[in-house]
Amino acid sequence: MATVDYPLEKSRRQREFSLSEALYSWVATVDHKRLGLMYMTSAIIFFLIAGVMAMVIRAQLIVPENHVVGPQTFNRLFTMHGTTMVFLVGMPIIAGMSNYLIPLMIGARDMAFPRLNAFGYWIFLFGGILLYFSYLGANGLFGAGSAPDVGWFAYAPLTERAFSRGTSTDYWILGILVSGIGSIVSAINVIATTLSMRCKGMKLSRMPLFVWVMVVDAWMVILALPPLTAGQVMLLFDRYLGANFFNTQAGGSAVLWQHFFWIFGHPEVYILIFPAFATVSEVVPVFSRKPIFGRQAMVGAVVAIGFISFGVWAHHMFAVGMAPISNIFFATASFLVAVPTGVKIFNWLATIWGGKIRFATPMLFCVAFIFQFLIAGLTGVMLAVTPFDWQLTDSYFVVAHFHYTLTGSFLFGVFAAIYYWFPKATGKMLSETIGKWHFWLLVIGFHLTFDPQHILGILGMPRRVYTYAPGRGWEPWNMISSIGAAIQAIAIICFAWNVIRALIKGERAGDDPWDAWTLEWTTTSPPPEYNYETDPEVRSSRPLWDLKHPEDPDWKYE
Amino acid sequence: MTRRLAVLTVVCAELVFAGTAGDHPIENIFRPLSTPAHEISDVSFLAVIICAVIFSVVAGLLTYAIIRYRRRPGDSDAEPPQVYGSNQIEAAWTVIPLLIVFVLIMVSARVIASVQNAKPPANALHATVVGHQWWWEFRYPSLGIVTANELHVPLSDTAHPQPTFLKLESVDVAHSFWVPRLNGKTDVIPNRANDMWIDPHEAGDFIGNCAEYCGTQHANMLIHVIVQPKPDFERWVAEQQLPAVEDPSVAADKQAFLSVSCVNCHTVKGTSASGVFGPDLTHLMSRKYLASGVLSNTPENLRAWIKDPQAIKPGCLMPAMHLTDNELDSVVAYLRTLK
C-alpha cells in the first residue's frame, strides 16, 4: 500500500502553505492524532525540563557538603521534578498515547468527543504553565525563584500558611488541579470512544490489549483523581477560608491529608505504569512473531491490578503509627497486587518463549522493561513487608524502587512506544543505529544511577536531603549515581538527535514497517485526517495476521 | 542480578568490617543492635532471599529465552508456531506466587505484632521525643530532664535488660525518627502521639536522621542516640538534673548573655533565660554537637554558630542577632561554662 495522494489531502496541504495558517490549524485542531502528538510533544518538553532538574539534584549530591545549590533551591527542584514527572509528563503521555492510538486501533475516525478532547489538552497545558509560572509569580512579579518547595506529596501541615508563606503552594495546588481536569476529560473520552466507536467486528474480546489496558487506566484516572482534587480544595479552604482540615495547630489532622493523597497516589503509580504495560503487550508479540500468551489472563490481570490498587494506599504510611491490624491489612493487599503483576511478567516471558525475536530498538526497550520491572516489582514486595518498610520508607531505597518503576519501566515502555509508533505518526523511521546508542547508554546510565541508591537506603540515607556529611559510607554510591545520571542525559541527547534527524531526513516508513498485526498499520503513515477510507472490519484480535495468513487465520481459533 | 549481588556484597562487607566504625559509625539496617531492629532485619533478610530466588529464576528464564529464541541470520521467514496460551500454566503461575505471598504475609504479621504490641516492663525508661523544625527535643518527664539532639539511653544487655520507650510528638510539621541500627522509623506527627521502643545491646553513639521531609533544613536534622552502660547513664542523669553551673569568673559574661535576645528562645535553668522555642542550654557543654548534629561542639564552632547561624544552616529558625564581638565573646565564654 504505497502512499496515495487523496484529493482532500492535497487541497489541505496547499491551504497550509502559510506559516500562520499551519500554526492556526494546530491550535484549532480537534483531530485526535494532532492532539495526541501535541500531548506527547508537551510531555517531552516537560520531561526535558524535569530531567535538567534531576541533573542539578545529582550534581548537588555528587559529593558530601556540596554547594551547587542551596537548600531552598534544592527543595524546589525535587518538588518540581516530582510534580512535573508525574502530572506533566506521565499523565499527558497517557492522554497522548490513548488519543493517538485508540481510534486507529479500534478503527474509528476520531475520539467520541473531539472538542472536549481539544479542551482537555489546552487545560492540561494551562495547568502546567500555571505551575511553572510560580517561578516568576509566586512572590508577585518582582520576586523570582519561588516555586513550591513542599514535595510532590505536599504533606500537611507543611503546606499550611504557618509553614508555607507566600503563594508557591497555591500554584502547586491550582496547577495540578487544573491539569487534572485535562486528565479526567481525556479518560472520559477514552472510555466513551472504546465503548461506542469500535469498528465492525471489534468485540471487546477482540480489542487490542493496548486499548484494554488504557481503558482500565482511564477508569482508574476517573476514580483516583477526585480524592486528590478534594484534598487540594480542602487545603485551599485551610489556607484562605479559615478551615482547619489539616491545620494541626487548630486540631486538624496531618494523617488525613496522607490518606487523601495516597488513595490517589497509589493508584496513580499503576496509572503511570499502565501505558508501558499496554505498549509491551503490543510490541513483544510483534517482535517475537507470536500472539500474546494468555490474552484473557492479561486482561484479567490488568483489571485485577486496577481493583487491588485502590486498597493498598496506606502502605505509604506504615510509619505513621497505624494499628497492627491496619498494617497487616495493607501489607496483605500490597502483596496480593504482586500476583496479577507476576502473571503479566510470566505471560510476556511466555510470549517471547518459542518466538523468533527481532531485536529492533522497540523490542530492546521492552526486554529491558521486563528485567527492570521485575526488579521494581520485587523491591516493591520487599517494601510491602511492613517491618522492612519501617526501615526503608523515606530512604533512598524507595527512591531507587520507584525510579525502577517510573524510569526503568514506564520510561523504557514509553521509549519502546515512541520507536514503535513514530513511523506511523510521522511516516519516517527513527535510526536503528542511534536508537541502539540511545538504548544502551540509557540502560547503563539507569543502572549506574539507581542500583547504588538501593544500597544508600540500606546504609541509612534519607530522601529529600540537600546535603549529607562525609564518613557515613554514602560517598562512593552517590558519586556513581551522579555519574550514571550524566550518562542518562547523554542517552536522552541521542534520543533528541534521533527524532530531529528522522524528522528532517528519516527513511520513509511505509504503512507497516514492523510487519505488525493491529489495525493502525493498515492505513498510511502518517494516517490521513479521517484515518480509514472505509470502515474496517475485523474478525479476530490480530486483523493483519488474518490478512497476511489467509491459510491460517486467527478467527478460526477465537 | 548485579544489583542483588552488590547488595549482598555490601551486607557481607559491612558484617566483616563491623568493628572498624569510627566516630561516625556507618549505619546499616542489616547490622541491628536492638531487639526491634533485629526482628526487622531477620524478616527483611528472608524477604531479600525470597526475592533474590524469584529474580534468579525469572531473569534466568528470560535471559535463556532471548538468547535461545533470537532470530539468527539465515533463519527462514516462516513464522514460529503460534501459541495462544494455556489455562493450566496460567493457573500454576497464579497459585505459586499466592503461596509465596501467604508466607510473606504470615512472617510480616508476626513481626508487626511483636514490635508494635510490646509492653514496657516496670523498669523501662520513658522519654518523649519532640520534633522541631529542625532539631530534636528530648524530655525525660520522670527524671526532670530536658535536652536536645542527643538522646541518652541506658545499655540494655542480657544481664540488665532495660528498654527505652519513646513517645513521639511534634510542635510544628511532620518529622520521622530513624536510627537504623536501633529500630525502623516512626513518624513524629503534630497533634498525634506515636510511640516506639529500643533496647540497645551495645554502648556507643548511633546516628540517625529525620526521615520525613519537614522543610528547608530537613537534611540537617540529625539524631544521636548515646547508649551508655548503666553507671555512666546514671551519672549523666545526675549531672543533667543539676541547675546550671554558677561560675563566678564569668559573672559579667552571664549578665551579658542575659541581656541579649538569646533568652527569648532558650532556657538556662536557674536564670531568667526561659524561652522554649530553641534547645535548652542548661547543660550545653555536655553535648557533643551543635545545630542538631551539624557541627562538633568546639569554642570556635560555637562562636561561628552564634555569630551567623544562617551561614552554617541556611534557612534555620535561629537568626543572626548581630552581636558585637565583645558580646559574642561574652556569650561564648558564659555558654562554655554550662557543663
Quick overview of this protein structure:
By secondary structure, chain A is an all-alpha fold.
Describe the structure.
- The complex is a heterodimer of chains A (558) and B (339).
- Chain A has 16 helices and no strands.
- With 558 residues, chain A is mainly alpha-helical.
- Chain A has helices at residues 7-15, 19-27, 32-61, 71-105, 114-137, 168-196, 209-240, 254-288, 295-308, 324-352, 361-384, 386-392, 396-426, 432-458, 475-505, 543-548.
- Chain A starts with 6 loop residues before the first helix and ends in a 10-residue tail after the last helix.
- In chain A, helix 3 runs antiparallel to helix 15, helix 6 runs antiparallel to helix 7 and helix 8 (254-288) packs parallel to helix 10.
- Chain A has a single domain, classed as Cytochrome C Oxidase, Chain A (Up-down Bundle).
- By secondary structure, chain B is an alpha+beta fold.
- Chain B has 3 domains: 35-69 and 82-116, Helix Hairpins (Orthogonal Bundle); 125-240, Cupredoxins -  blue copper proteins (Immunoglobulin-like), CATH 2.60.40; 248-335, Sandwich (Immunoglobulin-like), CATH 2.60.40.420.
- Chain B has 8 helices and 12 strands.
- Chain B has helices spanning 2-16, 35-68, 87-116, 230-241, 251-259, 299-307, 309-312, 325-336, and strands at 125-132, 135-140, 145-148, 150-154, 164-170, 175-178, 186-188, 194-198, 204-210, 222-228, 289-290, 295-296.
- In chain B, helix 2 (35-68) runs antiparallel to helix 3.
- The model of chain B is unreliable at 15-23 (pLDDT under 50).
- The interface between A and B is large, with 101 and 98 residues.
